[in-house]
């Protein structure tokens, strides 16, 4: 049951903007290069592996032990941050779906060299890390799992690999059946990018609500 839950969380993470939408845009480009997508996926996977390793090794706990973050003070900070996130997600104007699609395509069509691919991957990781609810839930499960740190790290690496299964599968299909899949990829990109910005707002609102509710319960 433990591993089935982790597998489910990893598959959910595989549908995020960083792990699926951006690779889709790369794949749909007429002058698509395997090297660009491979470097992007490797960098983003390495980022999430490194972040998970730091969290498993207790960096988060060490940070919260600072005197500034007393038990009560920590929850007040969490409450304020949660309220800000919730307000941002709810009160922000609904994004223009067409403008959202154009924005995503314009940003990524210019990525033609390794440095740009690495930068986009790191930027996606930093911006998405706090909103990757399945990933954070998986790290929490691994933290409470009664096993050695080496075993946990091995499972973490496997988790991060699973996150890229859809992107790698589409890459293989793109290489083997380019004429068949390319028109469909363009449709998928339009659908994904039109809803990407709206999804980010909803995720921000949900995370903010959960953070604020948990902090409010602890304070009052």
Automatic annotation (TrEMBL):
Source superkingdom: Bacteria
Keywords assigned: Membrane, Transmembrane, Transmembrane helix
Pfam families for the chain: SfLAP (PF11139)
Sequence intervals crossing the membrane: 6-27, 39-63, 75-95, 116-137, 149-177, 198-216
Record carries keyword Protein transport: no
Identification of the protein by name: Protein of uncharacterized function (DUF2910)
